[in-house]
Amino acid sequence: MTREEKGAIIDELSQKFQTIPYFYITDANGMSVAETNQLRRLCFERGIEYVVVKNTLIRKALETVNDTDYSSFDDTVLTGFSGVMFHPENGKAAAQLIKEFRRTNDKLKLKGASVNYSLFIGADQLDTLINLKSKNELIGEIIGLLQSPAKNVVSALTSGGGKLAGILKTLSEREEN
Asked: What highest taxon heads this organism's lineage (predicted)?
């Protein structure tokens, strides 16, 4: 690989690391060609981009990201065989795919992930990543919690208003008789 090709790969990766807030670094060492093709097919079906890149190129691309310090990836994550999964919209998609794929093939391992520029290191973080709520899910829950008391007040007022009108009607009918 020439220096220009390496530079192009580093530029492309650094642009993705800066613009896509969700990426997972995996280890698929020991997988056969058929197993790798199956993994790539699943990634394609779910809109996940999967690329296999040398660790040195990943490291250099991560160094260009200004907002986050990825130096903790150096010793534990960027060793051995590495593949990177990108999903532009859903931080859970790659974690769910990895967990699902591991049911039939335990050769795929999570080495590390960055979700909204928060770092998760190690295969034991997979369940944590799956259970993370997205920003939109959290906003929806907060709106639901904020709306609940208001809905209770409105329903109490409307139901109480009907009862009050019924009582007044009954009282006015009694006075007439």
From this structure: Bacteria
126 plus 155 within the same structural domain: no
Helices (H), 20-134: 33-45, 55-63, 73-76, 93-102, 126-131
pTM here?
Answer: 0.74
- Fill in the DSSP letter of residue 30: T
Residue with tokens 């093939």: 105
Same domain, 85 and 143: no
pLDDT tens profile 7-50: 899 999 999 988 888 899 999 888 999 999 999 999 999 999 99
For residue 165, count CB atoms less than 10 angstroms from its CB and return exposed for 0-12, middle for 13-18, buried for 19 or more.
exposed
Asked if residue 116 and residue 83 are part of one domain, the reply reads: yes
Residue 144 structural domain: 134-177
82-120 residue pLDDT tens:
899 998 888 888 999 999 999 998 899 999 998 887 888
pLDDT tens digit sequence for 48-65: 999 999 989 999 998 888
Indicate whether 104 and 139 sit together in one domain: no
